[in-house]
Amino acid sequence: MGSLFSQIVTVTAMNIRSLPRRLWMSLAMVLASAVVVAVLLAFLAMAKGFEATMEGAGSDRVAILMREGAAAELNSVLTREQVNLVAESAGIARDAQGPLISPELYVIVDGIKKASGTEANIPLRGLNAKGMAMRENMHLLEGRMFTPGTNEMIVGAGVLREFDGFEIGKEVRFGKNVWTVVGIFSTGGNVFESELWADAAMVQAHYNRGSSYQTIRVQLQTPGDLAPLRETIEREPRLNLDIQTERDYFANQGEQLRYMAIFGRVISFVMALGALAGALNTMYTSVADRAKEIATLRALGFGNFSAFCGTVAEALVLAAAGGLLGSLAAFLFFDGLSTSTLGGSFTQVVFSFEVSPDLFMQGAALALFIGFVSGFFPAWRAARVPVVVAFRNGA
Amino acid sequence: MPQDVLFQLKGVSKCFVKGKEKITIFEDLDLTINRGDFIAIMGPSGSGKTTLLNMLGGVDQPSAGEIWFDGARVDNLSEGALTRWRARNIGFIFQFYNLMPMLNAARNVELPLLLTKLSRAQRKKHVETALALVGLSDRAKHMPGEMSGGQQQRVAIARAIVSDPQLLLCDEPTGDLDRTTADEVLEMLQLLNREHGKTIVMVTHDPAAAKYAKQTLHLDKGKFVQRELVA
Q: Of the N and C termini of chain B, which has fewer Cβ atoms inside 10 Å?
């Protein structure tokens, strides 16, 4: 066994040390593997970043109520009467001022994207102080809170990063109304940072919403326990509402962009097939280049298995080097890259690419897959070709 | 099989099928090699010299007949068993040395020892002895590309003898060397035969090289046509 191990180590070391003889072919394999891994990681990092942004916004402590059948906040309409009925329900946490409930409006306004100079939708949310308190990690980065009853607004850090004209002190015109930016807020990088926040009453007034709202957020007495609220909704015919925890709501919103990950995997798989073809060519060339050495070793008494392992190891080393290069490139170019895309309510969601360790593992697995498959068949040939034929080929 | 017989070919044939044509290399060939023999095999190109050498070394198989080594039949061994047999009993010396270009002289010589259970220290000692025997102790760390053809062939001889095989098979060992260097290499083979008891079979085109052997067999069209004892 020790002898077999020595054989494999020796053959592998010789193969690796002979790589400079096949420098360009070997580099081509490294690069092909690197590109495939980088593309995979870019897609996965995008999907992961988006998912994290959406899921980070959801809390089990908060329930969101919308009109029955409304898939997103934008489609929902609720009356003041419904808000009052929900406020009386059991299961809602209370403080000294009463139930922790936030009736909110959600309208779309235009912004100019810094990256492209084109217009894109931004959500303007009307809410009250209790609503802001329900957002975990919400804090002001700069400036101050808007004053209720005025045309002041605070701007999410993501909006400030991706859109022009939302710096503190700037006046922003939406239609006939001019709003003043008085603060920049963060909610820890989640989807709320892609929003503008203003006083709910002012949003109602400027957008002719009367006394209507679009969603109600309530803080639950027991996190995740929707049963008392459901009971109220079922008992009260005027409450034709859907209820879910905020976590479930955003998870569903994020679901639609899972296609990014699927698309990324499909693209990477197709590219991996192309890379495999190139890698196979490299490895067959390698075996042909080493034919005389392989034949000599086998004549000396080295086994087929060591020739097989040596070739597979060479392919794995090249593909792994490519994988490492691709991962490094993905990390340098994409990790933390901020961008925005259309979210569930036809508004822009600002998010950052996340190249995390688990993605590196997926990239490494793909590189090793390319290495193993591209090494296997040439290795099989190296191991099975008769010694006299190998001598003839290597002459 | 008498005690002094090392190798025996009994009615060995070798043929290839190329397209619809059957090409016969040997037919019904008999050969006996005794321990301590130094045999030169000569013959024109295509006479089957190298094929014969490959069969003796177990890297090629006969189409018919039997090959016996040290009292045991070896032509019917599995590929794995034949590989192990080769590692234990045969040392190869090639025309173009066939050294591993990325390994230094000592590492090249060590290769056959990696197939044994010797420790690293034991292997090192064997390598030093083999390199000393071929006069290359001072070249142990040199890469093949840094040595002359003669030196490379001496490294190849050291590699062939390092695991103390009974039989050395040499395929045109001086075919790539000038006369003076060729003579040095042949003298070394003669020394290994006379003083270390190695049995040697050498394929060569060169009558001057054949004179170093104890006997010369002339092969033509798959038959031994002449046996010549060297004085």
A: C
Cα distance between the two ends of chain A: 32
What CA–CA distance (Å, rounded) separates A219 from A75? 22
Number of domains in chain B: 1
What is the per-residue pLDDT across A12-24, written as a single tens digit (0 to 9) for each? 888 888 888 888 8
Domain limits at B141? 36-61+78-229
Non-local (6+) Cβ contacts of A179 within 8 A are A151, A152, A153, A171, A172, A173, A196, A198
Q: Which of A387, A389, A392, A393 has the most B C-beta neighbours within 10 Å, making it the best mutation to test the interface with B? A: A387
Average pLDDT over residues A141-166: 93
Tokens of A63: 């329930």
Residue with tokens 């230094």: B104
pLDDT surpasses 50 at A1: no
B115 and A300 within 8 Å at the Cβ level: the answer is: yes
Query: ∠ at Cα A130 (A126, A134), nearest 5°?
Result: 95
Q: How confident is the model at residue A255 (pLDDT cuts 50, 70, 90)?
A: low
Residue B214 covered by a domain: yes
For chain B, say whether A19 makes contact (Cβ under 8 Å).
Answer: no
Residue B83 falls inside a structural domain = yes
Tell if the CB–CB gap between A301 and B88 is shorter than 8 Å. yes
Query: CA-based Rg of chain B, rounded to a whole angstrom?
Result: 18
Give the Å distances, CA to CA, from B123 to A303, B107, B115, B161, B182: 19, 10, 11, 13, 29
For A308, the 3-state DSSP assignment is helix
Which of A289, A300, A304 best probes binding to B when mutated, by most B CB atoms within 10 angstroms? Answer: A300
E strands within chain A? 62-67, 94-95, 98-99, 101-112, 119-127, 139-143, 152-156, 171-174, 177-186, 196-199, 215-219, 241-245, 338-342, 348-352
Residue B10 covered by a domain: no
Is B80 touching A (CB cutoff 8 A)? yes
Task: Give B194's contacts (C-beta < 8 A, 6+ positions apart).
Answer: none
Alpha-helical regions (H) of chain B:
49-56, 79-89, 105-110, 120-133, 149-161, 179-196, 207-210
CA gap A108, A370 in Å, rounded: 47
Q: Is residue B207 part of a domain?
A: yes
B123 Cβ under 8 Å from any chain A Cβ:
no
Distance from CA of A378 to the nearest CA of B (A): 20
Strand partners, A113: A163
Q: Across chain A, how many H-helices and E-strands are there?
A: 13, 14
Give the gyration radius of chain A's Cα atoms: 30
Confidence of residue A246 (pLDDT cuts 50, 70, 90): confident
Domain with residue B192: its CATH number is: 3.40.50.300
